């Protein structure tokens, strides 16, 4: 398959300022008529290329006339020779939404019809130059059976609607804002709306509607509240106002990813819309609000200013993730939010950055762009924007975004445009900073602190190295903003307060004066840069910071590092002194100044995956044993403290406050450590929590903890959970996931059985990921020495690839990590990758991921 390169970008030969689309909708056969007003862009004689994917032209007219000599097919595309400067092209095609298993283009989901066009789904609907730098005004007419599809939605404003003969009706939508194809959407469905209103800062009234199945209406309140809060936040923090008379969100059960920011018609995976205490955990509630905000913020960072080409994806995604993270931090606890985001980055992006699929946040080439909606483009992209915010400060950063939005409104921009606006508005030279866009790999910063008691001086040496990644053997040093502080070991006082140090070159020496006692280094506070810090801080120093640092993130980080050092030592030597960790956990757990939400995060041990990432060769069995040994020791030694925290966090009834949420978190964490102690009464306590739960956080928390043990309570809880929620797809996903995450030795057998369960299906991406995604996240079971985990995953990739290549390709990366495992595992993992790549008829999505993983 061809490789697309960033350097080969060329402006379009033809533009399409106006388009009229007419849909005669039907699940089996939908007729699409498209009238494109095209204009020649520049002086050239090249034909008009209209992309098509699986389309057959039923008719093509040029300026109203049939001219079969003037057009031809080239692959799936339609090529038309044109003589003038402007023409009107009309094409008619017929497509089958219900036969569309890729969930790209126009497809059917639980009786409704909906679209997904980003990145290249529009070409599966009609012939069109399907690239984000062509912006068109859309007028869309929808026609369908009124009983089956009473609701007809598209982008913009509803201009006209009415009844037709034969039980059909129509609606005409006009979007005044020019947009690229990937932001087009339509929905035809039998849904009901939760309707509300928002008055914008200039006093315009916007009608807000969240469309779901009637029975789900009671679960839309949280999404609606989040939408209104996002609209107000974007006005307050970025000065950005909503620009149309209505804003619609539609929930869909079958969706390839989280949600989609189509202009004024956001389409969502239902798991990011529906939430009530009975069926959604606190984490689910947060995810709903975060995704609603993310998609809403795209209206400016993505839609009003869009991307010139797909290499610029992080322009909208990194920036928008940064915006939604800041929003969520403002709505809740900034410290806990930062901890969660960094944990997510380390779980998903760091491994990507150190593996065969590593790429810069602005990639240089791709085979299939769908493979580049990655943690690097999104989450590292957000960290890059955050560094700009840190370096420039909030005012100059805001001046930069103002300039960027004003200058590029209504156009398709590049990452370079963004950096240039930041540079011009702030007066800060960002020449070297641009390396963050072009270089892949997670930089490592070695920090060495020495102290001369006599002169009262401390010397800090910082040295950076950026590892080689595929196609980038040699790296230049990058500008790294590090927030740091020094604390006196005895007085616990900061010397001069926090400062921002820019490590611009390979090495930097900093001297601190007036340091009268031995200092302890607190570095990369708030995770100011997405780097790995290597410092030789002792267990005692880390314990000190975990108790006394005034930056909550740094406190968390010190505790994590202490745990990590202990666990890595334990894996290497077969044993370790658990004392310092136990002491630090005890101090945190019983510190009356700390809130429960923070404690719940801080006392958690690093995941098995993250421990493995610290090692050259990963031994999942040894890591599991070392981690379990520490967990048991913590559970036993601090038994009373856990029980105390558990009891203290018990609520009489469900409340949706930050305090109550923190208490639920700490309660589940405590129950986990109680179970780790192996005290015989804990399965009963967990089962009692499960039974008495008036919310999903408590219920799923208990179920997850029970999932790892052999006890009658476990089986009873799983059957009860199934019986209760078998009709709720989103909750049933949890039933699959919880079983696939169990560390019991029979988990692989259970997963294989679950793949045959009547409720399992490859057609629904949520259900697929609930089992297969969970298994590959389960380090211990996925890497079972039998190799069955690898074989199961490869079988799934091959089966799903026939239906839905985009989703199949997302399952591949865990196999691509083979280099990091022992010889037997390497051989087994590679064999599976080779089996996949040798399969005839593979999609280019899976081919790209697998072939790159084998190199
Ligand atoms: N922009 C969409 C993602 C589309 C993914 C296509 N494979 C959702 C988002 O990031 O907001
Ligand atoms: Zn996005």
Classified by CATH, the class of the domain at 1-190 is Mainly Beta
Number of strand segments: 31
- The tally of helices reads 27
- Rg is 28 Å
Query: From the coordinates shown, what is the CATH architecture of the domain at 1-190?
Result: Sandwich
The separation of the N and C termini measures: 17 Å
What oligomeric state best describes the polypeptide chains here? Answer: single chain
Fill in the CATH topology of the domain at 1-190. Immunoglobulin-like
The SS-based structural class is: alpha+beta
Shape by Cα distribution:
globular
Give the ligands present: (3S)-3,7-diaminoheptanoic acid, zinc ion
Residue-averaged pLDDT, rounded? 98
Write a short abstract of this structure:
The protein is α+β, with helices and mostly antiparallel strands and 855 residues long. 41% of the residues lie in helices and 21% in strands. Among the domains are: 1-190, tricorn interacting facor f3 domain (Immunoglobulin-like); 305-438, Neutral Protease, domain 2 (Orthogonal Bundle), CATH 1.10.390; 453-529, Sandwich (Immunoglobulin-like); 726-855, Alpha Horseshoe (Zincin-like fold).
Task: Give a verbal description of the structure.
- Residues 61-183 form the Aminopeptidase N-like N-terminal domain.
- Its EC number is 3.4.11.2.
- The chain has 855 residues and is of the alpha+beta class.
- Among the domains are: 1-190, Immunoglobulin-like (Sandwich), CATH 2.60.40; 305-438, Orthogonal Bundle (Neutral Protease, domain 2), CATH 1.10.390; 453-529, Aminopeptidase N, middle-beta domain (Immunoglobulin-like); 726-855, Zincin-like fold (Alpha Horseshoe), CATH 1.25.50.
- The protein is 41% helix and 21% strand.
- The chain is built from 27 helices and 31 strands.
- Helix 2 (282-297) packs across helix 3, helix 9 packs across helix 13 (620-637) and helix 18 (712-725) runs antiparallel to helix 19 (729-740).
- The longest helix has 34 residues, at 375-408.
- The protein is globular and about 90 Å long.
- The structure holds (3S)-3,7-diaminoheptanoic acid and zinc ion.
- The site of zinc ion has 4 residues, from helix 3.
